């Protein structure tokens, strides 16, 4: 029997728990109960978020108005939440994963399998390191990934979308994850390319920030399409430079071009970057994030910084003018309008990218 714990309970974490719970209750090889670890916090009412989720079956802070399923049990104790589980679903903002893995090391079942829904990476001396790698190294478990064109609120309303599971070798684990997540409105397929899938999900957040700048400057659809096209080229080039095994075909799955489109049209990174540009860069991302997202977290600004670190370390910044501009603008070194200045570098940029 398989027992599932979801580690994380933000906007996407809550929707993931709902999707999974709708399946575990029907599939005989899974325990009905889905445990969801909650980073505990007090609500303005003075009540604890975990208590309210368990009382109302709703994550009133991160996914208000949506029932999670009676078989979802919120648990504020991380170690207790994972102790019986052999299928671990990781879905927190990426900056918290190092600490979470440290707390989980030695505390999980020996036969556990993991899947990461987290869009983000870490910076190591040798270059970018993916969150699935962090999980595998720190916890000693196999870790697949699930990414896609997945704005959580739309999936919570059961509107049709697709996602991609990325796996390395372990196809039977991938099949089990597909079975666990698939519903009539959430169509999941798998590809043997963990890094490719995870890099798509991670890097599209940087392009989404660029798309938000374009919207905030009211530059129109053609400019936004150009930014998305250049962004996709940089995503592919960056991925293949660091991970040569990444497959071109992965970029045409839901995790690739489809996620890039949805995130540049309707995501949180786009929304906050739009506000940043409208304010002429005078209000920081931190301030806008806190005001506009009410506890939800942006990943794009931090990822742009991480991308900048690994590229500058290698002297490769000039090959990635869009990624570089997003970072420089988001820390206030360039004005938002600099996002289209990359076109001036076009001949060199195109030449460099096509030589990769
Ligand atoms: N929301 C979406 O539409 C969506 C869709 C696909 C993927 N994702 C990805 O899923 C991941 C999780 O995003 P989300 O939308 O579920 O979260 P979120 O941004 O909605 O919420 C932030 C979460 O972080 C928690 N948190 C705050 N401080 C913490 C700490 N110190 N330690 C641990 N947790 C802390 C909060 O309790 C909350 O659960 C991210 O990588 C995101 O890119 C999100
Ligand atoms: O709202 P964002 O910008 O974090 O994007 C959400 C998802 O990643 C879209 O697939």
TrEMBL record:
Pfam families: NAD_Gly3P_dh_C, NAD_Gly3P_dh_N. It catalyses: sn-glycerol 3-phosphate + NAD(+) = dihydroxyacetone phosphate + NADH + H(+). Keywords: NAD, Oxidoreductase. GO terms for molecular function: glycerol-3-phosphate dehydrogenase (NAD+) activity; NAD binding; protein homodimerization activity. InterPro entries: 6-PGluconate_DH-like_C_sf, 6PGD_dom2, G3P_DH_NAD-dep, G3P_DH_NAD-dep_C, G3P_DH_NAD-dep_euk, G3P_DH_NAD-dep_N, NAD(P)-bd_dom_sf. Residues 3-172 form the Glycerol-3-phosphate dehydrogenase NAD-dependent N-terminal domain. Substrate binds at residues 119, 268-269. One of its GO terms (biological process) is glycerol-3-phosphate catabolic process. Its EC number is 1.1.1.8. One of its GO terms (cellular component) is cytosol. It is an enzyme of class 1 (oxidoreductase). The active site is at 204 (proton acceptor). The keyword NAD applies. Residues 193-340 form the Glycerol-3-phosphate dehydrogenase NAD-dependent C-terminal domain. NAD(+) binds at residues 8-13, 39, 96, 152, 268, 297, 299. PANTHER family: GLYCEROL-3-PHOSPHATE DEHYDROGENASE, GLYCEROL-3-PHOSPHATE DEHYDROGENASE [NAD(+)]-RELATED. Belongs to the NAD-dependent glycerol-3-phosphate dehydrogenase family. This is Glycerol-3-phosphate dehydrogenase [NAD(+)]. It comes from Phaseolus vulgaris (Kidney bean).
């Amino acid at each position: 029997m398989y027992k599932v714990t979801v580690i994380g309970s933000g906007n996407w974490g809550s929707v993931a728990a709902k999707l999974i719970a709708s399946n575990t209750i029907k599939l005989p090889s899974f325990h009905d109960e889905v445990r969801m670890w909650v980073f505990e916090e007090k609500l303005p009412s003075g009540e604890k978020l975990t208590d309210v989720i368990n009382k109302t079956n709703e994550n009133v802070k991160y996914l208000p108005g949506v029932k999670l399923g009676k078989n979802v049990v919120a648990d504020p104790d991380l170690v207790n939440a994972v102790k019986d589980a052999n299928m671990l679903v990781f879905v927190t903002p990426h900056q918290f994963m190092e600490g979470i893995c440290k707390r989980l090391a030695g505390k999980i079942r020996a036969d556990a399998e993991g899947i990461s829904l987290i869009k983000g990476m870490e910076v190591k001396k040798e270059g970018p390191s993916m969150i699935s790698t962090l999980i595998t190294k720190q916890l000693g478990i196999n870790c697949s990934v699930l990414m896609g064109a997945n704005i959580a609120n739309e999936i919570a309303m059961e509107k049709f979308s697709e996602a991609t599971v990325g796996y390395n070798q372990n196809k039977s684990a991938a099949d089990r994850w597909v079975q666990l997540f698939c519903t009539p409105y959430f169509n999941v397929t798998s590809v043997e390319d963990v890094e490719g899938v995870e890099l798509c999900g991670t890097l599209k957040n940087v392009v989404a920030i660029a798309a938000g700048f374009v919207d905030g400057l009211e530059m129109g659809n053609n400019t936004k399409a150009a930014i998305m096209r250049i962004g996709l080229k940089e995503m592919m080039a960056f991925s293949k430079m660091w991970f040569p095994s990444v497959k071109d075909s992965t970029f045409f799955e839901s995790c690739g071009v489809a996620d890039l489109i949805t995130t540049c049209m309707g995501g949180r990174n786009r929304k906050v970057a739009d506000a940043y540009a409208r304010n002429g860069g005078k209000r920081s991302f931190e301030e806008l994030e806190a005001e506009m997202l009410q506890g939800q977290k942006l990943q794009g600004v931090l990822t742009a910084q991480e991308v900048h670190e690994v590229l500058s370390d290698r002297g490769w910044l000039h090959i990635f003018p869009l990624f570089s501009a997003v970072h420089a603008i988001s820390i206030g070194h360039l004005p938002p309008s600099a996002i289209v200045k990359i076109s001036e570098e076009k001949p060199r940029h195109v030449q460099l990218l096509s030589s990769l």
